[in-house]
Each structure stands twice: as C-alpha cells, then as structure tokens.
Amino acid sequence: MLLAVLSGFILALFAPSIHRATREYTGWLLALLPAALFLYFAGYIQTIADGEVVSSSISWVNLLDVRLDFMLDGLSLLMVLIITGVGTLIVIYAGGYLKGDALIGRFYAYLLSFMAAMVGVVLSDNLITLFIFWELTSITSYLLIGYKHNYDDSRAAALKALVTTGAGGLAMLAGFILLAVASGTWRISSLDTHAQLIQQSDLYLPILILVCIGAFTKSAQFPFHYWLPGAMAAPTPVSAYLHSATMVKAGVYLLARMSPSLGHTDEWTLIVTSVGVITMLMGGYLSLKQYDLKRILAYSTISSLGMLIMLLGWNTKVAIEAAMLFLLVHSLYKGALFMVAGAIDHETGTRDIEGLGGLWRVMPMVAIGTLLAALSMSGIPPLLGFIGKELIYEATLEYEFDVEFVLTFLPALLTFLAVIANMAAIAVACMVTIQPFAGKLKDTPKHPHRAPIALWLGAVLLGIVALALGLFAQIPSKYLVGPAAEVVYGNDLTLKLSLWHGVTPMLILSIITIAGGVMIFWQRYNIRPILNYFDPGAYIGPDLLFVNGIDALPSSAKRFTLIFQSGKLRYYVSIIVLTLIFLVGYVIIARVELPTDLTIEDVRFYELIIPVVILIGVTFVLFSRSLLFTVAALGVIGYGESMIFVLYGAPDLAMTQFAIETLTVILFVLVLYKLPPLVTFSTRRARYRDGIIAIAAGAMITTLILVITALPKEAPLTEFFAGASYDEAQGRNIVNVILVDFRGFDTLGEIIVLGVAALGVYALLKLRPGEFSKTADIDDPEPVIKDDRSAVEE
Asked: Which among 171, 369, 429, 592 could disulfide-bond with 374, CB atoms 3.0 to 4.6 Å apart, if both were Cys?
C-alpha cells in the first residue's frame, strides 16, 4: 500500500521528461497510473464489502510510536476510488485543456503529487502520517492554484488557500497531539475503542475544536469559505479535481473518520451541525448571484460541502448513509460540470453565462455531459442524485435533538433549510445547462467549435456513471456507500437504495424542490437585485478580514520588530528574564506545593559569612564608580561562590570557578586602559525597572531552588554515571567523563562560545581610542560621565 501511495510522487519526478518525449500524448500516458491504482483498489471491493480491513505498517519513528500505518476500509475505499477514478479523467482532460502550454510538464508533476498526497490522506492510519499528507495537499494545491504565476490574482488566490488551509492544518496537528495524549495511541483505527476515554477527558473540547478547524478550513466551511471561490483563478483541471471531487472533501473525510471517536456528543452536534447549516445556506445564496460559470459552481460546491458537514453532525444512521451517498453523488456531477465549464471557456473564450447560448449545436458531446451531470445535481430520476436527495430528506425528517423544547419543530426546520439549499442547487444546474446550450448561438470572443475528445470524455463518463449507479442502485448500496457508512456510523447497518419507494414525504419534497428550483431560475433576473441588496459580505466578511489582515502584516511586523529587535542587548536580556519569570513562576504558583518546613537551626556561622560577603560584593558592583573597584568586587563575588562549592563537596567546581575568576580579573585589568570611563546608560526610571526585574528573577530562582531541594533526593542518574564512567568511558573522574563523553557536544558548544568570546575580546583590544561606543546604547541623549581618567590610570 505504501508503494501505491508513493507511485504518484515517483511518476511526478519524471512527468516533465515524459512530456518532452511524448508531447500531446502525455496526458493519456500519465493517466495510466491513476487508472491502474483505481483498478488495484477496485480489486478490494468484495473484500471490504465482506467486512474485512486491509492494512500495512512500516516502522518510522519508533521512540514516538509514529509509523507509516495504512488502512483500507469502507470509507477509505470510497474516497480512494473517487480520487483515482476522477484523477484518471482529469489527467487526460489536462492534456487537452493545457495543450501547447510551455509549463504543462510541471503541471503534470504538481497534479500527480497532489493525487498521491490525497491517496496518502485517506489511507493513513496514523495521526502524524495523516497530518504529513494533509499538509502535502496544501502545498501541492498552492502550486496548482498559482500555476499561472505571472498573474497577480493567481498568486493571491494561491497564497490565500495556503495560509488558510495551512493554518487549519497546524490547528489540526495540535488537536491530534492532544488526541494521542487523551487516548494513548497514534493509531486512528484504535481511537474507536478509546472513544469513551477521549470524550470523558478534559481535553475533549479542545481536541474537537482544533480538529474541526482543520476540517472546516480544508472543506471551505464558514467562516473559512472565502478561499475556494478565489481558487477559481487556477486552471480548470485544478478546479475540477481539487475543488469539487478531492481536496475539499478531505475535511469531510476527516470528520467522517473521527466521528466514531469524537462524535455522538452534544458538543459535536452543536459545532458541526451549526457550521454545516450556515455554510449550506450561504453557499446557495452566493451561487445565485454569480455570472461566471466557475464561480457559480464554486459557491454551489460550498453549499454542498455544508450539507455534507451538516449530515455528519447528526450521527444518525440515515444521516450517515445520506452523507456517504451524497459524497459520491457530488463528486460525480460537480467534477463533470467543472470540466464542462473549462471546455466552454476553452472553445469560446468566456465563462460569462450571459454571453453564451446555443452551444449544443457546436459542442454536442459537451452538452450531453452537462445534461447528465445537471440532472444528477437536480435530483432527477433515474440518476443517482435523485436517490441521494431523497435520503437527505429522510435524514432531516427523522432527526431528533436532545433539547426538549425543539423536538417538535427542529426536523421541520432542517427539512425546510435543506429544501431551500437544494432549490438553489437546481437553479444553478439550470443556469449552467440551459443558458450556455439552449437558444440561439451567440457571438463569443472565440468562435465556438467542437471540443476535442479530451475535453468532453471525462464529463460524459462521469454522467454515465451517475446514471448507471442510479439504475443499479444496489451496487453502490452494497459495495461503496454501505461499507463507508458502516465505518462512519461505528455499527453494523444494512443500506438498501432504490429509485422507487412509493409516494412518500421524501418524494413530495423532491417534487417541491424541483419546482422551486425551476421557479428560481425562471425569476433569476428579478431575484438577483434582491440578493445583491442583502450583501453584508461586501462590507464586512471573512474575505475582507483576511485581505486586510494580510495587508496589515508588514506594518504590524515593523512595530513588533521595533519592540523586540531594538538592537539593545539589555532589552533582549530583560525580555528573556521576564519570560522565564512568567513561565516558571506560573508553574510554581499553579502546580507546585511550596515547602513550609524551612529551618535555619543547623546553619553554621562561617556558612553565613560567605553569602554576606557575596552580597557586599554585589552592592559594590551596583554602586561603584571605578572600573578597577568594580572588577575587584566581581572577583569577590566569584571567589565567594567558589567557597560555597568547597564547603559543600564540589572541589572540581571550586577549582574551575577559582581559575575562571582569576583569569577574568586578569583579563579585565589588562583591558581597563582600553575602556572608556563608566557612563550612566540608563535613566533613573529604567534603573528602577531593571531593579524590579532583577529582584523578581532572584526571588523566582530562590523559590525554585527551595522547591527542588525539598523534593525527595532520588538520583537514579548518580548510580548510572558511577557505573558507566569507568566501564564504558574508561575514566575514573566522573565529572570529567560526564563533561567529555556523556555531554561531549555540550562541552564542545561551550568551547565554541569561549572561542567566539575570545575573538570579541581581541577585537576590543584592537580598537583605537575614540572608536569605542560611537553608537552608544543609551537612554539619555547626553551620557553623564561618572568617573575620570585618573581613577582608571591609578
């Protein structure tokens, strides 16, 4: 299974070279890989239908329990067949659509890489593996959306998609880490058995929110829907593949996969359902305002994705069945319609539906593909979309909510909202079918002509598949939708799909929906002014917030840099110390029980003298106005610390400290003549501020030491070092062995630091008088000289 995932990446490496050799036949040749993968995974249909699961695992990061785990069950089989099946047609379509493009070889590489990343997402059985492939889809989609990199709108759309989905992916990663902590496993297939443990954990709500953010950003749910319409700047093969059948379904797949472990709770229902309903209605509303074929289809896609999310939020048997069936239905008709939009644009030079008409005469095969896809989108029998629509209505009518006062009207409300959204979808289907193809042939920027087979083959085949699956509904029921729904629902279920169930409320609602959708299309010119009048997104909305936020980044970064990168060393030190005080202090206050049994009864007299001497030295350092006196006081502090090491059994440290202090004092004395007199670099207010920070840091460190010394004196490393120092490192001095062998890289780093410091000292010694501190770091505009040369010379 790993080879099946990696095959797309491997072929992507050679795609440009293959194109240089095969030219116009490249699409047909490269399509053999996704076709072969489709047939390979289709070979498991019967196995999966029998309830078996195919898995593979390869060791990767053993210490973190991260493995390349892959799993093929009903849900992943449905998704991987959509990815590879539609992918085969898209690769062929791209060869015709981008024929003659100078960079088409690069495009093939991006497209195949994206396909491989999507296959990895749906087959991953490890949270970290899933995240890696998830982010690869964001990166490859960025390259595909920004393929026309010479155009500003393409680059802006690619950036918008990358930032939005990439940020959502990072939130999802945080949720995955918390999920692994709560469940104790990274294995996705094992999460179901820990569902109760996860949902009872205090981490459940953060996990749910973070995972939902990842899903909502990828599937363009409100308020993250803004990136999808902008992504229509990409070539149409990208829109037909990424933004209808595959990438935007990744968020739906994620919620479906996590439903058994995170679902069936009030929080899940509230968050997922409400976002889905809002997105469903908003996408339908916005789709009716558009004139560009791709933007019409983009907003209707957002509406359909919202409906899928809404159904997954309920966790009922019928809702899950409807979601899995609609997932398949939407991929078939929307992929076909996007390919139709590209074919029309390619052959006429425009996507404006108001400037199109009569194309059925010159593009008959494209018209057939459009008609089949539009009938499925409208839910017209005998296509599969009709069955999907009825199942959605059945799910809304049977849905019940736990809150008592809404039990009576909520099913009716949800059904009403679903009918409204489906009416908008039917109106869209009429707009993309009737306006471009019916009526008289209109003048277009390019004289319309018959499209090549590569541009209509995919749309026609997807339409035929939707028709065939509708006529033989028991096939998707048993082999595709049923196994997928069983995985998401978490229990065994029996799904039976058919075109006719008699005269039912669902059938009546379907008839009402069709009539309403046709009425909206008929009255579209009267409805659009009303829709345009109520347009809050034009004044405030997520898209504007994103654009304004991106535009504000440079100025915000400049202000941030001026604060935190001021070029003043003492400010950097203050920030580091304050951060340490805040973080460590918070942990001490929130989680540590402070010792209360502190006594000073056993303190000896000479032990008190040493800290008193050190404090006196500190006082002289702070208030001394002589460089020589300051150096001497610093030496007193260092030697005092050395005496503490002597008293408490650390002779090695004491010797090291004595050597360092002696060398430091000598070096300071040697360079005294090269240094200017002491200067007041800070204002009085700054000195008070620094004093408060220093006292707080000292108090925090003192408290930390008291807490550590109050802990039980268990030192398992002592025995390890004592035994291993001689046996493994062949050394008798444990401290030296630790420094040289066990902490060799630490010691090397310290030596490098000392070497750099020596170079700095050498540079200071080479400075000529008058060059030192020409750009003094001062708060006062005129430093006040506190000393004279005589003291230095003395």
From this structure: 429
